[in-house]
Amino acid sequence: MTAHPPPTPPFRDPQLPFAKRIDDLLSRLTPQEKVSFLHQFAPAVERLGIAAFRTGQEALHGVAWMGPATVFPQAVGLAATWDPDLVRRVGEAVSREVRAMRARDERVGLNVWSPTVNLLRHPLWGRNEEGYSEDPKLTSAIATAYTRGLRGDHPTYWRTAPVLKHWLAHNNETGRDVTSSSVRPRVLHEYDLRAFRDTVRAGAVAGVMPAYNLVNGRPNHVSPYLREHLRTWTDDDLLVCSDAGAPSNLVDSEHYFDTHEEATAAALVAGVDSFTDHGTDGTTITARVTGALERGLLTEADVDAAVRRQLSVRFRLGEFDPRHDPHADTGAFDTPAHRALAQEAAERAIVLLRNDGVLPLAADARIAVVGLLADECKLDWYSGTLIHRSTPLEGLYERFGAERVTFAEGVDRVLLRTSAGTFLKVPDAPEATAGARGAEGALDPALLAGRTDLPPLTADADGTELALVEWGEGLLTLRAPDGRYLSVAEDGRLRASADQPGGWIVQETFRLEPHGNGHLLLHVGTGRHVRVAADGVRVAGAGGETAEADPEVFELVLVQRGEDAVARAAAAADVVVVVAGNDPHINGRETEDRTTLRLPAHQERLLTAARTANRRTVLALVSAYPYAFEPGQLSAALWTAHGGQAAGTALARVLAGDVSPAGRLPQTWYADDGDLPDLLDYDVIGARQTYLYFEGAPLFPFGHGLSYASFSYADLSLRVEDGAVHVAFTVANAGATAADEVAQLYGRAVDPSVVRPRRELLGHRRVRLAPGERTRLFLEVPLSAFAFWDVAHGRWRLESGPYDLLVGASSEDVRLRGTVTLDGEPPSPREVLGAGLAAVDFDEQSGCEIVDVTRTSGDAMTPAAGGTGELVYRACDFGPGTTGVTVTVAGRGTVELSSPGGGARAVLTLGTPTAGPHDYVGLEAAFVADGVRDLRIGLRGPLRLAHVGFRG
Known about the structure:
20% of the residues lie in helices and 29% in strands. The protein is α+β, with helices and mostly antiparallel strands. A hairpin with a 5-residue loop joins strand 19 (485-488) and strand 20.
């Protein structure tokens, strides 16, 4: 007899719709197998021929963590291009490198955790480099472009599956897993949700990752917004992947649930589909899910829903159709096209902040290049390993010739003398030529160990001259003459072993602490002081010592001041370029917010020395975030984010005039720390944050950026038709060089009934024009873009009235303006007799914050820190009259209601505390009011107010 092959199971049939195939596969998986799929590292199911799968491949501006890859500019730099087409091409190149790298290394995943669409609300946020903009429209435009490039353009199969980070309202590293962002409804809908919403609706997003923080008192990993908002924006199955360790935080640090079974069940029901916890070991998560099922906290249907969403992504990636996957052979790695694109992106990201005519540099100029970043090409936590590298110094050497360029780094050169009169010594180590940290790739680079194959530091009569850099707030690095940084490995010994500062916990930073007539040297990574032992230099507590072992008292011997070398180089040059900025691993990074906008004192000294020696000073800021400085004392200033592998070449070409700068600021640059709200104040409306509401004078406004050409704007045309405002205008290059212009359109309500943005980006175009060339630009703005979230009625509302349309080169550089009158809805009062008032739907507040009503849904108001607060509700309609009021409260304290001008007043006190913060009771009192009037509610004490009802 002839044996017939077994029939192809439906889940393997490419002719069937994905939904039916997923149904079939789910029916074949055992309950235990389905539970195992809920961990980040889903195991293989060999009996069905299903391979292992992991969620999460970092790819923010190139493939990260997995070894060498093309490194593009940081995300904030990509946004500074204001060029969605370029960013789409970058996303496409990254996705092709993901495919190429996966072909040779199965550790590389196709589910990419990128981009980050958190709005850059506050410039001191440590992860500013990861986001795109403070503006939701620009953020969504850039994020949509990047995800489209990552996804690919095949209608069915995706090249990679992008996941947006980090849902929601996440802009602080300080206490990031325990702090709550208080987000009022208008800010939620008009600001924080918007960047996610518009990007998801564009159709190239596979999922989202919740953030570590809480929003309105509830952890993002159990947020009802995942269901109420996210999953309503698309018919696609969106995969929600937890952030690393966040599921455990629900119990361990946030104490939001009593047991991990309860927490895991709540997260799964809320919409988390894949749990990133406990590294590659899925046994803890599967045990928690199993325990939750046994306790009745979950059903098999809950598990199926999550597994279905994961399988949907895997099917779209072509995993089950290898012969039909159009992306299987489309990988490309480190190609000439990718290298050219990296340079193009770096060039387009450079923003010219100021220029008195010194730029572009003359071809025969003698140039001094100085500063701590002049010969650096820095990487951040989410970078790949460099294959190619270009520093500003190298770029200028290449462009102008080494004979016309001089260099002074500006480091302080020091010796460290011990109490015994000897000096710290870096032993010779000819074998110290190992590759860069992480060059071999790592699923979790936080676990990469420091080098122990090199000899530790010693002390002798001669010592080694070290390069000392102070990076701000007393943090310093020490570098040996061969370029290696002093670092501490697991054995606690000091070695000159690191190519750059880096790692999840940086082991290359120190502090000098005054002590008697000298200094203690504190190693920041271990929190221990340095001491000199007989067998080498180590931190106290290493080698079996107690942590209290006597530290060494060092005398800092200054051999050369950095500013002296800078001044000499600057004085001998026609022009001096000071390259300043940050190291992405120090003072402002994931886990660490900045504390000031100012440049570190060391770099301020170098800048002052250069300016004093040569008035033709150009400041080139290479940084992950804005700085505050005095631009009036400079001939020119530029900014670029860390620009990846081609950063130096790009900067040199812009300085030389080979490329006219056309980058634009994606966020406001403030003049002073005093202009900033508290880092944890997420109310952009009430605190007047970002260019949308800021009422002060910025150092440089949102959208700012100069050019070597000049552009004129003319012939503005406005027309309201077919549910949109149609805008047209002409831009002309009036200069003598070909250049790009970024034309920007803003709108503002002329006479709004509530606080509205001073101006808001409605659209933009980046266009290239030859000298004398002009072009007509057309923008279409849907009327919905002019609406606001009406808290009185819980919906979007377009308000009737005049709206200004502003066209120009930045949010403040307006060249054309016109006004249109839009027909919308007139304001109407709140009808409070029926449904009452949700406390969170206030118009104004002071001294309050938003907290959760229950662990699963609802918002309440409470006085901050249990003090006092006030809520204002405008135009409440009490109808023919009320006789009483009922407040729904928890905790302990007093609620006071009053209606100005009407005499109505009620005071309700909850004297006996409720059992817990989620245990609400109703309090009643007489309250007589009629007609339409404002309502004020005062809160005192640790009390939560969820709802106010009225009876008539």
